[in-house]
Amino acid sequence: MAKHITAYGAKAIKKVRKKTPAKTEQMPGPTENPATNLMMVDVAIRAGSYIARRSLEKGMLRGRYGKDTAREIVQNKTLGQTLVSFGLAKLATKNLPGALLVGGGAVVKSLYDRRRSRLAQRREGDRDLIEQAHRGDD
Questions:
Q1: Coil, strand, or helix at residue 24?
Q2: Residue 72, C-beta contacts closer than 8 angstroms, at least 6 positions apart
């Protein structure tokens, strides 16, 4: 799936370069080194996505747990939780079978949760998140 998007992007850049009067050897950026420019762009994109992700996580939790507790929950995520999220996202974006596997797993988990009583789900989720929020207090 990502390769398909990459191919479209490469074609679009090729079309723009044909219409651009400047030399194609020059790469825009703060330095003449294209590797450095690419690294700077990569860092900027990753930092922006990190900030956006943290903001969305806190915003989703803030309504139920309050501002301070939501911040603590997000800050106290374990390395394991972070690695699992990263791994699943990477698998889902690599190819269509990965996307189907991760999406299918999410659907199965949702159906499993829906089958259980709503009160039990809320209690379990609340307990886990409150424990996570207070993990840093120890």
A1: coil
A2: 132, 133, 134, 136
Produce one character per residue of 84-120: b if its CB has 16 or more CB atoms within 10 Å, e if not: eeeeeeeebeeeeebeeebeeeeeeeeeeeeeeeeee
Contacts of 102 (CB under 8 A, 6+ apart): 88, 89, 91, 92
Cβ proximity of 94 and 88 under 8 Å: no
Residue 72 CA to residue 75 CA, distance in Å, equals 5
Q: What is the pLDDT of residue 107?
A: 95
Write out pLDDT tens, residues 77-90: 899 998 999 999 99
Q: At what angle do helices 118-133 and 67-75 cross, to 10 degrees?
A: 70
Torsion of CA 120, 125, 134, 84, to 10 degrees: 140
∠ CA 47-53-126, nearest 5°, is 145
